[in-house]
Structure prediction request, 198 residues.
Amino acid sequence: MLKRPVFVYTELSPNPNSMKFVLNFELVPEGLSFDYPSLESTLEEGSGSPLAGDLFQFPHVKRVFIASNFITISKGDDIAWEEVLRDTKQFIKIYFEENQPVFFEKTIEKNTLIVDSRDSDTVQKIKAALDQYVRPAVESDGGAINFHSFNEDTGTVKVLLQGSCSGCPSSTLTLKAGIENLLTRMVPDVKEVVAEGV
Prediction:
């Protein structure tokens, strides 16, 4: 059996503890993302990932995020990327050369940005703005943003930040200076944007 050509390159992210491992093929359909904050989360029914589970076997791996054509790995403060980058990259390359699965067969693909016909007009506008203007920039940094909820009374939008954005020192600034400014300009009902579960 022929091995497929697998190319992996790395990109730094704004979070010094996160590294983006980019592949030459798509891992999940555009707009979908999967965040694994622990080994246990890689086994959850409907969203499990043997790839993420295997990555957690490395002691330096603290979080795994999979989206588009990349895997963002977050490490602890106690080790430098220089010490573990080569082995991690090599593992990913071999994993895909051997055609190992990214997800368990029953993993449900879910995208919280998809506009639902039951969404209010305001929520539809918020989701569209996040999808069109915010998601590409956040993905280029190795993370993802998903709509969580909108409170009509207070004008507060809650979003989920994943991947390199989770625990990143600059994510709060990006959230307030970038995303909040954009949404309050584009959707007048929005007064504030807050991150859920960061």
